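Hi there,

I know you've been waiting on this one. I reran it after we fixed the sequence typo, so this is the corrected version. Both the input and the resulting structure follow.
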Amino acid sequence: MAAPMLRCARAGRGWSLGSRPRRTRPLFAEPAPGRVRGRSSAAAQEPRPGAREWAAVVGLEIHAQISSNSKLFSGSQVTFLAPPNSLVSFFDASLPGTLPVLNRRCVEAAVMTGLALNCTVNKRSLFDRKHYFYADLPAGYQITQQRLPIAVNGSLTYSLGVGAQWNPSATKTVRIKQIQLEQDSGKSLHDDTRSQTLIDLNRAGVGLMEVVMEPDMSCGDEAATAVRELQLILRALGTSQANMAEGQLRVDANVSVHHPGEPLGVRTEVKNLNSIRFLAKAIDYEIQRQIEELQNGGKILNETRAFDEKLGCTVPMRDKEGKQDYRFMPEPNLPPLILYDAESLPVAADPQQVVNIDWIRERLPELPSETRGRLVEQYGILPEHSFVLLNEDGLLDFFQNVMKETRAKPKKVIGWILSTFLGYLKQRNLAVRERIIGFRPGRDHRGPLIQALRFLNEQRSENASPRSPRQ
């Protein structure tokens, strides 16, 4: 049977099915003939006789490392690329007799994130032990929040992409099921040459926020856009740096397909996606793989898969046919986590010993959606240009500093940034912060501006061609 071709219906939840000669690797970019569920077009062809629509369902579980100087339950420092096993306390190594001490900063970060994502923050939440064996989990269990997490029932709204452009008027909302605090595991370093595995416990016990999204998405583009918006929110809040290259934001995607109007299909889980681009590719590949398997009379297994970046496909890791028994139990060494608001705050309470939800709400910074609206209103730029300014790390600071120190028209500045500056960086494979050398957190805010003006002068000099002498 011919391999199916798919395209994501961004305004709906459908995938169209066409046919073409089988290829060794699936294609995702080409639009499929036929009608996509949720969209209508006068130019769309009628579906091939016998072809049926497919609907894809995607849910995400996102682990964000909390920006904190110390770990969730111990005083060990959190530093990226520290020497192996140099940041490990007795508790992190699970030595007998050690007890957890909850990090206040991690609690405040989870509360602030929950408020920014329109969640209900529970004034009483519980900690649990999740048991499973792995070499880099020294205790044999993970402390998490399974029964009653710190925040529930939120939402995240994001704008959908149309080709390479943003369409701010086309938005979609994904429901947030819950946000829970939990500790990270260590890291296994596999040495294939010597056929051995080394364990680094520096990461063991680092504080995480797990953001569980309901299966409200239907393709890789939607999932990638939702994760990118969450990444911007976390950075604006300062609750997580969300640097995927450093493992500070890791995504698990649950994917299934079914015919519209029929029960949902068997889902597979694609684990540990550490790039937004690979996230989109992995989900789209998995959707196509499942449809192809079902069209060929096969069966979808309830399994965990990994994404092979070199081959561009998902590969099996382990099956989930038998439900894994994590033997959840209440964490006996941690009492219930009690939070307060202004009305329930105890009289003469020590501010260092309580977390005030209303105090955190009052200190919420400007969120990305609000920043984009302000840029459009203040500078008169197009809404899609405001997305570009926020999506490139450091570009908004660059733009605002140039506008602050010059009297150039905003549309001319944004036009130069989009057409010349970003093109210059792309040719040299540089990021904005790499080119603006003076930009470092905590330094003089004029550093980026000075480097930006130097760059403008350099470009002006490079573009000025010398006159040729007269003959």
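Quick highlight: DSSP finds ten helices and 17 strands in the chain.

Best,
R. S.
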